[in-house]
Write a structure and sequence with these properties.
Strand content: under 5%
Distance between the termini: 51 Å
Largest sheet: none
Number of strands: 0
């Protein structure tokens, strides 16, 4: 089975680069498949230079250049921070055979180059046209559009992802969160409702739904939703803080004080999360 190269790249994007050589450094693959396997092992170890060596050897050993091997080599270069080399390998693979996965990887390289948002977005648009039924491709386009500030266009793109994979709660969640950020509370609540039907045990979904419901004026339902979030994750101080804030805003002072005396305390991250949530729905920090 082919590796998911974008997943590999993202896995190490924010990792602290490890020092030294791993167990695959001194191995020598006797075939393209063995070299690729050693390259993947080195990549997961964090020995990026050895991974590059193995993938380059796999390319050299192959009688016919494989776009997938070039993609693996590009992923290794990208993970090592060697962006120009990654770009060259992805472009070579692109000339042999295009795929949504390849174009996603190529777009990620464009995004690493400063000021290349246009190429990054165009590449993802191309991927969405190449694989119109691939939900992940449309999601990656939406993600990039959102990153570059085109949030309404991101809504359109992620709606296509939802249509392609209506049984995947993540896409409903992502749409609901984005709509919440845009202040489209009714539509956000609808998307989050769909997500919760698919993932009824997800506390974060209940928390977001509480905010969307409050924004639509359904305050009792919002309080119930955040209570469910807190019940599912009783050690989460942010949820407790949001519950206290909504109760106080609703005028349920006694209930709010009872909740405020709970053992769950907020840290600085919780307070920042609470401030953002309350700002979304037009409340000041009350907890």
């Amino acid at each position: 089975m082919r590796a998911n190269f974008e997943a590999i790249r993202q896995l190490f994007d924010d990792a602290v680069e490890r020092q030294g050589r791993g167990e695959f450094a001194d191995k020598a693959g006797k075939s393209p498949d063995e070299s690729r396997a050693f390259g993947e092992g080195a990549l997961y170890e964090g020995d990026y230079e050895s991974a590059i060596t193995h993938f380059r050897e796999a390319v050299a050993q192959s009688s016919e250049t494989s776009p997938w091997t070039l993609m693996e080599l590009g992923a290794a270069y990208a993970t090592a921070g060697r962006v120009p080399e990654a770009f060259r390998q992805y472009e070579k693979a692109r000339r042999i055979q295009k795929s949504g996965e390849l174009l996603i990887a190529l777009s990620s390289v464009f995004q690493q180059y400063g000021g290349r948002a246009h190429e990054a977005l165009d590449t993802l648009v191309e991927a969405s046209r190449l694989e119109p039924e691939n939900a992940f491709v449309h999601y990656k386009l939406a993600e990039a559009l959102r990153r570059y500030g085109f949030k309404k266009d991101a809504v359109t793109a992620v709606r296509v992802a939802v249509a392609c994979a209506p049984d995947q709660s993540f896409y409903h969640y992502w749409l609901g969160e984005l709509l919440l950020e845009l202040g489209s509370f009714v539509e956000s609540a609808e998307a989050l409702h769909a997500a919760l039907e698919l993932a009824p045990g997800d506390d974060e979904l209940f928390c977001l739904a509480a905010q969307a419901l409050w924004g639509t004026g359904k305050k009792d339902e919002a309080v119930r939703a955040v209570r469910l979030a807190s019940d599912l994750a009783p050690k989460n101080g942010y949820y407790r803080g949001l519950l206290v804030s909504l109760l106080r805003a609703q005028g349920a002072t006694e209930q709010a004080e009872v909740e405020a005396k709970g053992k769950t305390q907020m840290d600085d991250y919780d307070r920042a999360s609470l401030a953002r949530a309350l700002e979304r729905i037009g409340l000041r920090t009350l907890a």
